[in-house]
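Hi again,

Forgot to attach this to my earlier email, sorry! This is the prediction with nicotinamide-adenine-dinucleotide bound. I've pasted everything inline since the attachment limit keeps bouncing my files.
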Amino acid sequence: MTQTVPLLIGGEMIQSESRNLIPVTDPATQAVIAQVPCATEAEVDRAVASAKAAFESWKETPVSERARLMLRYQALLKDNHDEIATILAKETGKTFEDARGDVWRGIEVVEHACNIASLSMGETVENVARKIDCYSYTQPLGVCAGITPFNFPAMIPLWMFPMAIACGNTFVLKPSEQDPLTPMRLAELFREAGAPDGLLQVIHGGKEQVDQLLHHPDIPAISFVGSVAVGEHIYRTGTDNMKRVQAFAGAKNHMVIMPDAQKQQVINNLVGASVGAGGQRCMAISVAVFVGESRKWIPELREAMAQVRPGLWNDPEAGYGPLINPQAKERVLRFIQEGKEAGAECLLDGSECVVPDAPDGNWVGPTLFTRVTPEMSIYREEIFGPVLVAIEAETLDEAIRLINENPYGNGTSIFTASGAAARKYQHEIQVGQVGINVPVPVPLPFFSFTGWRKSFYGDQHAYGKQAVKFYTETKTVTARWFEDDIASGPNMTIALK
Ligand code: NAD
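Structure tokens for the complex follow:
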């Protein structure tokens, strides 16, 4: 018997009454490891109602107590780091070390949430007019909701609910139905850390449950991370229902390789950034732009990529795991085929990849294309697999133009020994997260995760100071305390007197 994943409502792990169950499968074997229920309409309503009720007392809870909950939570996450990573690796297929990294990058956000007192400080100016002071507070919004993707089942839920809750809100999480066991373990540990009942609810399902959240009158704010098509739907529907929405979407991230870069650094970093996690990272490098003479390193890049092989989560020699499901594998194979048909040269082809210990897994080997042009689907679309396309440019200006014309703007990097080239690149590139000799520039949580253009819809980003802005309202107070002076009659103007 496989387990049916519970819902977390009102502080209790409960079994859903839904008969609509989705299997959670091991992507290396297709074995069903759990069933996840699509919560009923009444259950989603109960989750929101419970979060709404809990908000009444949580919003009055002193900020230092909220911070202490986060301190206990980060300690528990650290104590259970390996156990969470094991659950995560088994349901996503990620290698154990990569799974630990997924959890770790989430723990860092919880550490950031521990600083909520200083993060939520307002502003004050004394004597804005005679004997009048002005100051601002940040106050929580109410029930916030988060919808998360499959590819970081620890990190991305942890981008959301710790910051929202530290700000004084309560939260309804709808994690990916493809790997719900990790977020459920995170939720259990949050309760163990002493979270009052109703602070965090977890409901499961897909479009129907998400749409109910998007239309729910008691939810003022929605955070989403996932694909472009769903992100656009979430942003449009959420804002149409007068909610504030932050929607992080897909990507096509370029690495520019200047001829003065250090060759071995380029190759090592490019291999890890392109095929690590099977390319299933929104910050994966999927396009390498070789400027000038650096193009002659492509054969060595091919050799280095060919050394990497996918494997089981607990195989220490495996470079990465399987793709999340058979449809994802089919989609990647379709892109590889389209690339060949469009005239790109497939220098390394992972379509026939086999892992003898797990013949039914969703394996795709490292794949490298050259002679790629911007009209080809392998350049235009997010493939989300271990496929790297190489493009050649004569100058840095040409590389910058290419990237700025691409609709996505999540992450990019430049490898160079020239400060002037790096400075020009960081200034002119229309991408929200830039690495200089750093291939995957995911910011630490005291900054924000700042995707641009088609990779993000909204204005306030995840974590950093922007998360506090997203999850709070600012209240500005203008105050005068009368001494014994008598007011000199009514003030008939807008000016403060
Ligand atoms: P997805 O869009 O299929 O699913 C994301 C979430 O939306 C899931 O919880 C899912 O249940 C829900 N959902 C799916 N279809 C829906 C619909 N029609 N209406 C409402 N909700 C729906 O994404 P995924 O495949 O789980 O994740 C991979 C995608 O996420 C990639 O495109 C990747 O680039 C993106 N991603 C972006 C970032 C970022 O920060 N920009 C980070 C991680 C992943």
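The mean pLDDT is 97. The longest strand covers residues 132-140.

That should be everything now.

G.
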